[in-house]
Specification:
By secondary structure, this protein is α/β, with parallel strands linked by helices. The strands form 2 sheets. It has an 8-stranded mixed sheet with strand order 4-3-2-5-1-6-7-8, with helices on both faces. A 6-stranded mixed sheet has the order 9-10-14-11-12-13, sandwiched between helices. Helix 4 crosses helix 12 and helix 4 crosses helix 13. It is globular, with a radius of gyration of 22 Å. The two termini are about 35 Å apart.
């Protein structure tokens, strides 16, 4: 049967792809298929396309997307054609696969997605590939077809058993380790670090973004044991450990200008300070390994304009000036502590006078670990995204009010909405009401708690 492309047929095919091969973004742990055997087999059928370009492999609990986009922007400023593979997407499935070049980015074409799926759909069925395995394979092939010079490759979940872990990169980066996806990766920081450390390969340098007393030894042992059999090192522990860099224990190129860079960056979350240091350390390692000819001025400009150059969404992104609206996909305790602290700081400094917090979560996140971080003096609109993973808004509301009662925190003004659209409209009305009561007021609406809340809000306000 001949498959003829049309916009309608393409949309139907993408919908079927999500249904037939459930994604973690839509259904959670049920879509997770640990192990790389099927990926390796399919990769062999496809001709090992990822071997046609250099790869920088990124893992970590938080910051993977920001680090990946910054690195892609920086490398593209050197005249390289850079492939960028990230997940999840905010508005369009194709955001997961981009070519960054000449100061802008291009998504994978709908026609390529269409042709790839129809060419291999029988194999997908036969191997029972997951959604992420399919999209990863698609990305590998598309980057080869585009003749990418280098690809920045973000893991989906974990590292050791992640679908992306069939590659041998020129550099591995692990941003940080936090307690997230504990049901699949482990209950402790060392256990999670072990899974993330699975992307470390023999003779390949690795940058760890954030050191931690509980996880440093995990990475050190992994680098050592991975390289001890290698004849190049002849058992030389010092030479082996030179492959390992802890970014927060170094002062990479341009770090003395970090305050100025961060002030100018179009990624304004304060957590980007840690990500910036990781990126600069990674670029230094690449330069020392002769993988790129990095110059300070080009690095600086490219990193400052990361969001513009890569069309990056959902990281402390301003969606509106009136009212002032910020969205961020931070979704766990490790990430949200920075976001909520930044909101409190903005209020203390007079950059906003009132906080309207639009918050929702997925059911498999530790909401109780986040609630104690929430700003006390704020108006709350609890909501839920579409899909099976959403935690009902009423449950989030109940947990927050219980926390207030148990701790003696004054109960704030709270609201509950069954959809994100309703919640955004209500948050805007609340902000307008604050302005009506006090024309000098500067209300700020924060939208977050999960990628899916942000995705629906961005689609509503910018779609």
């Amino acid at each position: 049967m001949e498959h003829i492309f049309s916009e309608e047929a393409y949309s139907e095919m993408i919908g079927n792809l999500f249904v037939r091969f459930p994604s973690f973004q839509k259904t959670g742990a049920g879509a997770y298929k640990p192990g790389i055997a099927n990926m390796e087999f399919f990769d062999q059928l496809a001709g090992h396309p990822h071997k046609q370009y250099k790869i920088i492999h990124i893992a970590g609990t938080n910051g993977k997307g920001s680090v990946s986009n910054m690195l892609a922007s920086a490398l593209s400023s050197l005249g390289l054609k850079v492939g960028l593979y990230t997940s999840p997407h905010i508005l369009d499935f194709r955001e997961r696969m981009r070519i960054v070049q000449d100061g802008s980015s291009d998504l994978i074409s709908k026609e390529y997605v269409w042709d790839f799926v129809h060419r291999w759909q029988d194999t997908f069925d036969h191997l029972d590939l997951s959604f992420f395995e399919i999209t990863t394979s698609m990305a590998f092939s598309w980057f080869a077809a585009q003749k990418a010079d280098v690809v920045v490759l973000e893991t989906g979940l974990g590292g050791r058993l992640d679908s992306t872990n069939i590659v041998t990169p020129v550099l591995s980066v692990i941003t940080n380790i936090g307690l997230d996806h504990c049901d699949m990766l482990g209950e402790t920081l060392p256990e999670i670090a072990f899974e993330k450390a699975g992307i470390i390969k023999p003779k390949v340098p690795v940058v760890i973004g954030e050191s931690h007393p509980e996880t440093d030894s995990v990475f050190e042992r992994k680098v050592l044991y991975t390289n001890l059999p290698e004849p190049d090192f002849m058992g030389n522990r010092t030479a082996i450990m030179s492959l390992l860099t802890f970014a927060d224990k170094t002062s990479p190129t341009l770090w003395d200008e970090s305050d100025e860079i961060l002030a100018e960056m179009d990624l304004q979350g304060e957590y980007q300070r840690k990500n910036l240091r990781t990126v600069l350390a990674a670029l230094d390692v690449l330069a020392s390994g002769s993988q790129s000819d990095v110059t300070g001025s080009r690095m600086r400009d490219a990193i400052i304009h990361t969001a513009e150059r890569t069309d990056f969404h959902g990281r402390w992104e301003k969606l509106s000036d009136d009212p002032y609206v910020i969205c961020d996909i931070g979704h766990n305790e490790h990430g949200l502590k920075y976001n909520f602290a930044q909101l409190e700081k903005m209020k203390a400094e007079g950059r906003c006078s009132h906080l309207v917090m639009l918050y929702g979560s997925v059911a498999d996140k530790d909401v109780d670990a986040v609630i104690h971080l929430m700003p006390a003096d704020a108006v709350y609109v609890f909501t839920q995204a579409q899909g099976k993973r959403a935690l009902p808004a009423e449950e989030v509301l109940g947990r927050y009010l219980s926390y207030c009662a148990e701790t003696g925190r004054p109960a704030p003004e709270v609201h509950c909405c069954g959809t994100v659209v309703e919640a955004v409209k209500l948050a805007f009305r609340l902000a307008a009401s604050i302005k009506e009561s006090d024309p000098e007021a500067l209300p700020l609406v924060y939208i977050g708690g999960s990628t899916y809340i942000v995705s629906e809000a961005v689609a509503m306000l910018k779609g």
